[in-house]
Amino acid sequence: MAASPDVENLTPDASRTRSREVATQVLLACSALLVLAVPFLGASPFFITLLTEALIFGIWAMSLDLLVGYTGLVSFGHAASFGFATYAAGIFAMNVSADFFLSTAVAIIAAAAVAFLTGLVVTRLSGIAFAILTLCICQVLFQISVVWRSFTGGLDGLIGVPLPTLFGREVEPGEELYLLTAVSLIVCYLLLRRLVESPFGKTLLAIRANEDRAAAIGIDVRRHKLVILIISWMTGGVAGTLFVFLKAGANPMSLYWIESGNILAITILGGIGTLFGPVIGAIGFIFIRDQVTTMYRAWQFSFGLAFVLAVLFMPSGIGGIAERIWRRLWPARSS
Amino acid sequence: MFVNSLNGIIYGSFLALTSLGLSLVFGLGRVVNFAHGVLYALGGYFFIIFLPSLGWSAMVFAPLVVVPLAIAMEWLTIAPIRNRDEIYTLLVTFGLSFMITGAIEYLWGTETTLIKPPVIFQGTVDILGNQFPIYRLFASALSLVVTGLVFVFIQFTPVGLKIRAITDDNEMAEALGINTRWLLTSIFGGAAGFAAFAGALGAPIFSVEPEMGMGIIIDSFLAVILGGLGHLPGTAVGAFIVALAKSIGGGYIAEWAIAVLFLVVAAIMVLRPRGVFGRGRIA
Questions:
Q1: Among A239, A278, A279, B130, which is least packed by CB within 10 angstroms?
Q2: Cα separations in angstroms, A133 against A125, A232, B95
């Protein structure tokens, strides 16, 4: 979608590029440490819970970035990955076992299965058609979650999902659940970082740049789209699992199309094609929404306005701007 | 069952009016207008605001206020990104729909308002042993008439000819000297006017609330895809299919019917991208 940020048209000076890489690693390590240190810095329980939710949305937004930012597929049905996983993990935790690893595995596998079925169809399309088709499929899941009351609890959703257990020990809400979420976010980030920097990730960028040309040089476009869709949904599944444990329940509204639009707006405002940008977008969204809605009634209007302005004037989002500044600080070539 | 399908037909005639605009704007400018639903909502709101002072002529004035708003919207947000990927119009209009829904809640609150139909249309009429409100029949007939007038306009006037030419082949139409830029803006405004009229006309039936636009926009999308993007008669038929699927059986069965409807529409997008009649454009 956006202009490729990865192309450096100047001949890079090897040692300077190296120093920027080191600086980036140091910055990432510091951010990870900061995220993990929050509970030990005397943050209030309310703040911790809010930040947990923000990081969960961060994982979810990152998973959408794989589609929108790295493959150029704008999904308007990404609530499906998250919402479906909340039900899969929630029903499993209520009826079988609340073990965190098992529940996550079940949610991921379930999400992957649905993503595979969805992908067989949606990977034929791109652009607007892809957006609307994913929206339709998400609405099918939404309707089923509302109607199949005996299994999903209908409009009330799932109520009374137990706390997760980790190695046989119950994870306490608050700080422990936060740390679990923070570690999940960091693991997801590192894995996805490796993925997008791998040859597979570069192939996705080729598909984003031009699907027809990518196909012409021998890339199996549909298979690549299918694989990235499955990975994206699996990552969304991790977010959904954490969310169902945080809220101790699941709600059909997580599958509603407006939720898909919300996460899309968060991802784009945060900065597509950067992975870390959507996380910043999610943290900003959750905190501003929670702090502001009580005293400022025009929140929804302002969010819409910010999104419209971002799409019109800074499609690379916060993450894109941050990346540009970072490059300026560590120039690849002495000038 | 009978009353359900009658209600379906009534909803369908409103849906035809809103989907028509969506279909026209897509056909002309390949703009997917998510904000079409909130223009419908704005029509309803301006109507109930003007009603005390203007009486039932508010039904005409409400759309007249929405049209310039829509034109300003198109001019400020959609025109500047005409040269970018089409998907951006979808993103921008989604943001706009969020903005306008937020503005409605901010300005006029979140309550649901149901107003009474005008005195001459109050009361019910007996249809096969069922008492049916007269206003519903009148409003449904009126929106069908307006839909018909739009068809006539597109099919038999010089401007309609230009619109069809652009829908067929944008570049060729431009080469023949048709000002597509200007036409798109005016059609965008016109489509907004019809959506707003539907919102005003439907106020005594479906009531007025901030989320009303978000609900009808999805149904309109379904209707447009079923009928074939940019193909107007197909869109109208699609509107009735959607409305009937949502109402027949009522309640629980209707919820399942909607799930099936979404699946059918998804299948159509892949297998018959030109719509049921094979006459529309491919997204």
A1: B130
A2: 9, 17, 19
* Domain contains A335: no
Of the residues A128, A211, A295, the best mutation for testing chain B's interface (the one with the most B CB atoms within 10 Å of its CB) is A128
Cβ contact (<8 Å) for B270 and A121? yes
B248 within domain boundaries: no
Question: In whole angstroms, what is the distance from residue A205 CA to residue A123 CA?
Answer: 16
Please tell me the distance from the alpha carbon of residue A144 to that of residue B213, in angstroms, as a whole number: 23
Minimum Cα–Cα distance from A127: chain B residue: B87
Total domain count for chain B? 1
Q: Which residue has the tokens 């901010």?
A: B106
pLDDT per residue, tens digit, chain B (283 aa), is 777 888 889 999 999 999 999 999 988 888 889 999 999 999 999 999 998 888 888 889 999 999 999 999 999 999 888 888 888 999 999 999 999 999 998 888 888 888 887 777 777 777 777 778 888 888 899 999 999 999 999 889 988 888 888 888 888 888 888 888 888 899 999 999 999 999 999 888 888 888 898 889 999 999 999 988 888 889 999 999 999 888 876 667 778 888 889 999 998 888 888 877 777 776 6
Helix extents (H) in B55-133: 58-73, 87-108
* Residue A8 covered by a domain: no
Dihedral class, residue B282 (left if φ above 0, else alpha if ψ from -120 to 50, else beta): beta
Residue B227 lies in a domain: no
Range(s) of the domain holding residue B146: 2-210
| Out of A124, A136, A311, closest to residue B91 by CB | A311
**Total of domains in chain A:** 1
Quote the minimal CA–CA distance from A145 to chain B in Å. Answer: 10
* A2 falls within a domain: no
Which of chain A's residues have a Cβ under 8 Å away from the Cβ of B96?
304, 308
Give domain status of residue B240, yes or no: no
In whole angstroms, what is the distance from residue B127 CA to residue A317 CA?
58
Cβ neighbours of A128 in B, within 8 Å: 32, 86-87, 90, 283
pTM, to two decimals: 0.90
Residue A205 lies in a domain: yes
- Subunit contact A128:B94, Cβ cutoff 8 A: no
